[in-house]
Amino acid sequence: MKKNTVVIGAQWGDEGKGKIVDLLARQADAVARFQGGANAGHTVKANGREFVLHLLPSGIVHPKKLCFIGNGVVLDPQSLMEEIAQVRSQGIKVEGRLKISPLCNLTMSYHKMLDKARESKATRAIGTTGRGIGPSYIDKVGRLGIRVGDLLQFDVFAQKLKESLKEKNFLLKNYYKVSPASHDAIIREYRKYPALLKPYMADVSLMLNQLIASGKKVLFEGAQGTFLDIDFGTYPFVTSSSTISGGACTGLGIGPSGIGSVLLVAKAYTTRVGNGPFPAEFDPQMADFIRRKAGDEFGRTTGRPRRCGWLDAVMVKRAVQLNGADQLAVTKLDVLDGIKQIKIAVSYGIKGGGYPWTTEELAGCRVRYITLPGWDQPTGGIRSYAKLPANAKKYLQTIEKLTGVKVSIVSVGPDREATIFRG
Ligand code: GDP
Ligand code: IMO
Ligand code: MG
User: 3-class DSSP state for residue 45?
Assistant: First the structure.
């Protein structure tokens, strides 16, 4: 990693960002999360151990790297504390290395209650993770949020909580017909957080700008994926943050000049958890076959089976543009081993070749595929690009041609070693 790099998912999340960030973190000084919250589930397999990270940046697995949680993240203190306890029990020291922005909005218990209540009442549920993400960002933008820094003056926190609960409990009781949140129970729970969180609080923007100015290398870790972006994703079946590379600037307080490279991570096929259009989705038998073959196509946060489909080059090309990507990592190539014929979606049949303007148009599009011959040789043990089966190389070259970006990393298994770096 020669430049400060932002790592972004090209599809609907779970592309293997955690693995790629962990690999690149070896060459970085710091890793920073800039959006999302505990809805993320990033898997890192290292030295025979598996870590599933929700709020902590994947760099936490490397003992000496600084890890930042920027203002763009919505922070659930309960989830964070559980996660810190979990990684501690796996031998990781967090103290002194984790820096959290006091500007992060808090995800409160009532955000999770509202998320679940709204999903169960909706005629068109989004299929959220139930982690309170949407309601947290609604409060942030609606200027009703409570921020991490508010915990430093507990009376300010208590006042904001009281104000916010008036509206939340009205909704919970009268509209959703569920039990309201208890002001006293929240106060009791939150009394412990000022002391627990203060040691981690820092001016994340200032620290990152100083690191960048002094030539240190920073890795920016995206969560979710390009098509879950609040603006450019399959709205309304999206998450509530800017998941694209631009989000790194507003979610951390750095300028675009601080980012040197954008690495887009695309799975060799496509998956999606939750509802919403999926043009290149498999039929149920093929989805079941791939899910079984991959062995792990179940959401890392909710355990739900992931929907599966062919690689969609229309999406990945669009993601290249939206993120300004200059590198591509293709993950899970090994899962395609042994499949006789592999398809790639190359067109949505839109007049003029453009991208659909509405989600309804996307849902109704006519997908055109190309078919490539597969390969029989297992790729999981291969460590050099030259040794990949000829048809696997052809598959990767086709992706490069269709997206206009070079594949610089090929991942052929969940472990660190199962990776091919090119150039
Ligand atoms: P993230 O959210 O983008 O970090 O991805 P997840 O961790 O949710 O899901 C990716 C899954 O694929 C994890 O279980 C990884 O261990 C696994 N994985 C990552 N890269 C590869 C690969 O190249 N091959 C295989 N078979 N599994 C991989
Ligand atoms: P990582 O970082 C896959 C999906 C949910 C739902 C939609 C909205 O591991 O790639 P939310 O709880 O955010 O309001 O849910 O977004 N979703 C993810 N899907 N990977 C994720 O994160 C996701 N985070 C949210 O399934 O469809
Ligand atoms: Mg994930």
Answer: strand
Instruction: Report which of 314, 369, 373 is spatially closest to residue 342, judged by C-alpha positions.
Output: 373
**Do 57 and 91 touch, CB atoms closer than 8 A?**
no
The residues annotated with a catalytic role in the active site are 14, 42
Ligand 2 atom nearest residue 301's Cα: 9
Q: How many CA atoms lie within 13 A of 319 on its CB side?
A: 35
Crossing angle of the two packed helices 109-121 and 133-141, in degrees rounded to 10? 110
Which of 261, 254, 176 has its CA nearest to residue 212? 254
Taking the C-alpha atoms of residue 202 and residue 98, their distance in angstroms, rounded to an integer, is 9
Supply the residue whose CA is at minimum distance from atom 13 of ligand 1.
43
Q: 318 vs 227, 232, 327, 402, CA distance in Å?
A: 10, 10, 14, 11
pLDDT digit string, tens, across residues 26-60: 999 999 999 999 999 999 999 899 999 999 999 99
Q: What is the DSSP letter of 95?
A: T
- Structural domains of the chain, with CATH: 5-101+201-262 (3.40.440.10), 105-195 (1.10.300.10), 267-421 (3.90.170.10)
pLDDT digits (tens, 9 = 90+) for 313-326: 999 999 999 999 99
Ligand nearest to the CA of 52: 1
> Which atom of ligand 2 is found nearest the CA of 223?
2
